[in-house]
Design goal:
146 residues, mainly alpha, elongated, binds zinc ion
């Protein structure tokens, strides 16, 4: 089980698809279904942040994904062609292979990044959960001592 309390950094929160406001709960439904890769919870169960604040909210995520994957593949192509002396066709094959491999990651990550840009982090939720977790631990410890 993933950690349910405490604070994580913005990049980690983006990368692991956490809620942008509390960074405690996950945005996407788990387990992951290949037929429905963008299956999100409607809102966060900790802080009630809506994951689709308005229709078409993720339109901008398309550009994030375009820029990210564009640079990613250009850099790989430059390294293989000029660094390793691969032919353009070999590089193209590798890019197609990597494209298929990273497609869903880019898709989900760009959405996560987009909502992290738009929604402000509120550290109180993390504080409250951390406090609750600490209390639960100390109370269970004192119960076992009795
Ligand atoms: Zn939240």
């Amino acid at each position: 089980m993933t950690k349910e309390y405490g604070k994580i950094g913005m990049l980690k929160s983006m990368w692991t698809y956490h809620c942008p406001r509390c960074r405690c709960a996950k945005m996407y439904k788990e387990p992951f279904e290949l037929s429905n890769p963008l299956n999100m919870h409607e809102s966060c169960r900790i802080c009630a942040q809506k994951f689709e604040p308005e229709p078409g909210f993720y339109f901008g995520a398309m550009f994030v994904s375009y820029v990210l994957s564009g640079w990613f593949f250009v850099i790989i192509a430059l390294i293989t062609v000029f660094g390793f002396g691969w032919s353009v066709n070999q590089t193209m094959l590798l890019i197609l292979f990597l494209g298929a491999l990273t497609y869903l990651r880019f898709l989900r990550f760009s959405r996560s990044m987009w909502i992290h840009f738009m929604v402000k982090y509120d550290k109180r939720y993390g504080d409250v959960l951390e406090e609750r977790h600490r209390k639960a631990q100390t109370s269970s410890r004192s119960e076992t001592q009795k």
